[in-house]
Task: inverse folding
């Protein structure tokens, strides 16, 4: 129950819709909200989605999040070249001592 | 401008100690929980520790308990991470980040620094 699993890679052509999955367990995604982060090489992550489906100010509405049961998804609609980055899901895990758990990460490539 | 700037990273020998700092600006520092997250070379993100706005509450990932200490000085708008008994597996980029007071990172880590690199090697 200590891992949030994401596909290692995803890709699409400009304008396409890309979806990234994040699979967890009852102790994390099943019980708590999910956040998503975007990270470019050599920089700190940026919050993209919080509380499953909320966008912080300034995040384009082509980024959307959803959650169902013990899984969550991030969708990028109208893929753009500047979306090529690493994406991380995260959720609090209610395990023995509690911790904030990050997913395994997905590299999105724009073809 | 809201900003977090980490410093203090460097090369340290196994078993050594190091203290990282994070300088906050552009917001009311003592309104926010603060967090340290690390990223090993070419690998994923790992939550390390967090601290409450007044510094009275701290939490750590099991792997660093008793080894790392998170603290803050609200008068100086600064966050710290004291690391001791360092091992090769502690080699990583260390980021500080802030979150609004809410249970279980409901609002996520809203602002991140650029990171500081710690290398543990002889």
Result:
């Amino acid at each position: 129950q200590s891992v949030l699993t994401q596909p290692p890679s995803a890709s699409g052509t400009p304008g396409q819709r890309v979806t990234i999955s994040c699979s967890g367990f009852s102790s994390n995604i099943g019980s708590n909200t999910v956040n998503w982060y975007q990270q470019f090489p050599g920089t700190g992550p940026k919050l993209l989605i919080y509380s499953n489906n909320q966008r912080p100010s300034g995040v384009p509405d082509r980024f959307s999040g959803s959650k169902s049961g013990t899984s969550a998804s991030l969708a990028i609609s109208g893929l753009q070249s500047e979306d090529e980055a690493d994406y991380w899901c995260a959720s609090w895990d209610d395990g023995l001592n509690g911790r904030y758990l990050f997913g395994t990460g997905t590299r999105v490539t724009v073809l | 401008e809201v900003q977090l700037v980490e410093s203090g990273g460097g090369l340290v020998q196994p078993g050594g100690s190091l203290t990282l700092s994070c300088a906050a600006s552009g917001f009311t520092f003592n309104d926010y929980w603060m967090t340290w997250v690390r990223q090993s070379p070419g690998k994923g993100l790992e939550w390390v520790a967090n601290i409450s706005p007044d510094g009275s509450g701290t939490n750590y990932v099991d792997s660093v308990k008793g080894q790392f200490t998170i603290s803050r000085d609200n008068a100086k708008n600064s966050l710290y991470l004291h690391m001791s008994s360092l091992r090769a597996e502690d080699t990583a980029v260390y980021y500080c980040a802030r979150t609004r007071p809410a249970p279980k990172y409901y609002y996520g880590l809203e602002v991140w620094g650029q990171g500081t690199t710690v290398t543990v090697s002889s």
Q: What stands out?
A: The interface with chain B takes residues 32-33, 35, 37, 43-47, 49-51, 56, 88, 90-92, 96-105 of chain A (CB under 8 Å).
